[in-house]
Amino acid sequence: MEWKRQISLGNELSYTTILSSILLLSGMLARAYLLIFVGLLFILFVFINRYYLKYAGSQVKVSIDKETVKLFKGERSDFSLTFHQEGLLPILNGQLRLTVDYVIGFQNERQVLETEQIEISLPFSLLGRQSYTIELPFEGRKRGVAKVRTIEIRIPHLFGFGEVYLQYAKPILFESIVYSSPVSVGGIERIVPKNQGEYPIRKSYFEDMTAIVGARSYVPTDPFNRVHWKASARTNELQTKLFDRTAQFSWTIMINVRERKLEQYLSGLTFLLEYATLKNIPFEIFVNARRAGKSPFIHIPIGTGKEHLAKSLELIARLSKHSVTIPFHYMIHYVERQQQISPYIILLGEIEENEQLLLRGFTKKGVDCFRIVESEDAIYLVKASHSERRLNSHAI
Predict the structure, then answer these.
(1) How many domains is the chain partitioned into structurally?
(2) What's the predicted TM-score (pTM) here?
(3) What does the buried/exposed string (b/e) look like for 162-195 if buried means 16 or more CB atoms within 10 Å of the residue's CB?
(4) What is the domain extent for residue 232?
């Protein structure tokens, strides 16, 4: 059953039923065929009225042309609802009502009181064996995921005696994912590659001995084991191997969804993730929202590339302050003890408990810890210090 049905009958129909019974009984007693005919006519009218309200719209099928729409805040898109009438009973002068999450915006919408949803009302008519498509353009309003929560149709009776309310009972397979808009982050230049690693960089002191990128003329100070014998044979003079210069450069990002300035900080984080993807910097994300499984919190493993960025941006879009969480300091302590830590940690949100102890633990492991902070409507990346409880956002 695709629709839940609620029928509302007017008092006029009850009066008509009583009147038709009186006319029919009077006609039968008086053998007045005209009264019998009128009584039967009224009874037929009541029957047709009830039949229409009982079955109108029962064979309407609903389909949506898109299951997922992804966009950034301020961008526009659309989706279409198609109603297929497989029965013969028409729907005339009806009203279609949709409720959608407030994450996206429509024209002529109405805010539903005390909820985070909006309502859209449209006139609706559908003849027998007919299909009708409604296009719904919308705009990304804020970060989040919007779903069509309800589809309802109000069908008045053809003669005005009562109406029926239909509510779609099946899951509506549509969602619009609105990504957080990136906001430039200051202080990002303070994160520089260090130690031996795999990240290619021109000014590193470390070289990847397995990645030969060329050769140059041999000088007396070059170690003999670095002679490039094949290049030397081709040029008839000694050549020295040139190796790719690399460093260790990856980020571990930890998000506290209970952070008061979550929206602003997520915009800054979106910028950092796009920057990391552009520079091919590996990153992983931890979120202190509860989930089932081995790990009690959300974790996106370390990775690079556009697919990794898309997965991360979708996670950010789905974060909610209403999520069931674990203490932020507990997640950080768990990660510090159980996971392989990147050389750089970026914290989004205050730790509040055991902060000095946790930061000191990172320092002992050679890990640099940074925070995303806001000052004068700008977002900055500042280095956390275990020697102070609160950071001065101007000290960048």
Answers:
(1) 4
(2) 0.76
(3) bbbbbebeeebebbbbbbbbbbebeebeebebbe
(4) 202-247
